[in-house]
Amino acid sequence: MQQVSGRPRLIQALFDAFSLPDLRRRLLFTVGMLVIFRFVAHVPLPGVDFAVLNEVFEQNQLLGMLDLFSGGAMRNFSIAAMGVYPYITASIVMQLLVPVIPQLRSLSQEGEAGRRRINQFTHWLTIPLAALQGYAQLALMRSQGAIGEAAALPTVAIIVSLTAGTVFLVWLGELITERGIGNGVSIIIFGGIVAGLPEMIGRGVIAKENIVGLIAFLIIGLAIVALIVIFTEGHRRIPVQYARTAFRGARMYRQTGSTYVPLRVNTAGMIPLIFAMSLMIFPGTIASYFASPQGQTPNFASTIMTWFSPSTPLPVGLFYWVLYFLMVVAFSFFYTMVIFEQMDLARTLQRQGGFIPGVRPGKPTVDYLNKVINSITWGGALFLAFVAVMP
Predict the structure, then answer these.
(1) Taking burial as the number of CB atoms within 10 A of a residue's CB, which of 3, 156, 188, 228 is the most buried?
(2) Which letter, b or e, does each residue of 123-133 get, where b requires 16 or more Cβ atoms within 10 Å of its Cβ?
(3) 63-88 burial by CB neighbour count: b if 16+ within 10 A, else e?
(4) Distance of alpha carbon 309 from its chain centroid, rounded?
(5) Which helix (H) or strand (E) element contains residue 48?
(6) How far apart are CA 127 and CA 133, in angstroms?
(7) For residues 275 and 92, what is the distance between their CA atoms, to the nearest angstrom?
(8) What does the pLDDT read at residue 170?
(9) Is the pLDDT of residue 43 over 80?
(10) Tens of pLDDT along 276-320?
(11) Are residues 137 and 177 in the same domain?
């Protein structure tokens, strides 16, 4: 009889995970990469006036939110100040170009080799985007007085350092994907967010001795995590039958076997939320470089910055949250279609001798699968959008 441990299930699951050598190695490798990420996030660039920099982040709520997602790297103006967001922007551009450019569409249908080639193009595109964003951040910090005027050589050195920091973090993410647990880039983003949560909770709840608020925060957070897990693991089973030919002596028999294909409710995962957040941040970030200083008459850039800031009070702030909600839904459908187009499920079933009962092979199967995918994606997309706009 199997001995039942007195530990809670979660603790027992952790013990079981560390009892498996391969899983233990992957967990420790992931933790090690996150430690390196946190170390890099505290390596500052030279010539920064941190007193002025802290004032800039206190006055600019948009920069404060970006700093939360970078785990404090932006407030430190370290070599990892941009995080992996240039890579995310490059990924969005490539995902939009794949259905449009025939050569990229052909690569996406070549299996693992084609996806690796597209991923390589994404890495190349990350470098100029990181350099452009690095120059924009440097110009913003100089306009606020956080960095003094510098000659061409120091400017190039800072831009190269910021670009190298982003490329290094993307490389860490690739290592986590190959040798660790989960998607590496998502783990890097998660590490940055979690690193900033203790300070945010301490400043907003514990410092005010609001114990009830802290308990409510923890309960709501755990409930949201539980719902996310339920929707992530939820799927619809599509029955599939396979017809095989068997020979017994001189006779031929037709044998059938049945199984199912699970179609997830939230096939795209958290990628639509990350894509939507990146696009929503972009206009406000660009506008902040040209916005008029505080105390002066707001210009057009200041208005754009207000419209695209999550901290803008209602009713003006409603524009940001409604647009964010719609973009999460749109990206959920878009990314789900991209994934299933790459899978080419209908052709795979036909090639393997499988068919859906009551549905003819070929185009009818494609239409049936698209109809099912669209119907179940609505639930996952709306849920993900509600999670994104929750306070």
Answers:
(1) 188
(2) eebbbebbbeb
(3) bbbbbbbbbbbbbbbbbbbbbbbbbb
(4) 20
(5) none
(6) 10
(7) 7
(8) 93
(9) yes
(10) 887 887 787 777 777 776 666 777 777 887 888 777 777 877 888
(11) yes
Residue 275 placed within a domain: yes
**Assigned domain for 218 exists:** no
Assess contact for 85 and 186: CB atoms under 8 A.
Answer: no
Q: Is the pTM of this model over 0.85?
A: no
Residue keyed to tokens 């900033």 = 196
Does the pLDDT at position 172 exceed 90? yes
Name the domain count of the chain.
2
The domain that contains 26 carries what CATH number? 1.10.3370.10
Cα separation, 169 vs 234, in Å, equals: 32
pLDDT tens, residue by residue, 178-226: 998 888 888 888 887 777 677 666 665 555 556 776 777 778 878 888 8
In whole angstroms, give the CA distance from residue 109 to residue 131. Answer: 31
Termini Cα distance of the chain: 49
E-only strand ranges, the chain: 235-248, 251-264, 354-355
For the chain, give the number of residues. Answer: 391
Please give the Cα distance from 296 to 155 (Å, whole number). 29
321 lies in which domain range?
A: 235-391
Token representation of residue 307: 């419209």
φ/ψ region of 237 (left if φ > 0, alpha if ψ in -120 to 50, else beta) reads beta
Averaged pLDDT of the chain = 78
- Write phi, then psi, for 196 (nearest 5 degrees): -90, -10
Q: Cα torsion at 271, 274, 279, 284 (round to 10°)?
A: 180
Do 180 and 308 lie in one domain? The reply is no
